[in-house]
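User:
Hi there, any thoughts?
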Amino acid sequence: MLQDQPLLVPDWICTDGVGPYPPAIVESRKEGLLLCAPTHHVTKHLQQGIESDHFRVKRVMPRVGGFRSFHTARRTIQGF
């Protein structure tokens, strides 16, 4: 996967500090998926920009009744 395309190998990896990430990075290095040892940044600040983008997806969706036409259903789904 990444071995065939070295331009896609990351130089640095930013995570929110959850426990499984450091061992996974080390294991990926041992398996040869990462050609160099990437810098591991642990910060929640950089993750917040990504997570704030998903707030529309994560919010509770209202219960919607049946639709009379496909056009109405499509417009409603676009609103979510």
Summary: The first helix runs from residue 21 to 31.
